[in-house]
Design brief:
Elements: E1 2-3, E2 6-11, H1 22-28, E3 37-40, E4 43-45, E5 61-65
Antiparallel strand pairs: 1-2, 2-5, 3-4, 3-5
Length: 70
């Protein structure tokens, strides 16, 4: 699936979100956190804020990779 300028994944309606942070979701799903940008409910979340970003049931998380090149 393509999102914006790159490739990404969409996690709609996050389930089992009690106590889950954006970092733990990425780990649970096997996402290489260093290679993606993230957004929760259409709001960009910088890498340094992922540990402090709690997820709630129904949140929509999107990861995306920028396409690099000329």
């Amino acid at each position: 699936t393509r999102f914006g300028p790159g490739r990404g994944r969409r996690f709609a309606g996050v389930s089992g979100a009690a106590g889950l942070t954006l970092t733990t979701l990425l780990q649970r799903e096997g996402v290489n956190a260093e290679r993606v940008a993230t957004a929760v409910n259409a709001r960009f979340v910088p890498r340094e804020a992922r540990d402090a970003t709690p997820l709630h049931p129904g949140d929509e998380v999107i990861t995306f990779e920028a396409i690099v090149g000329g």
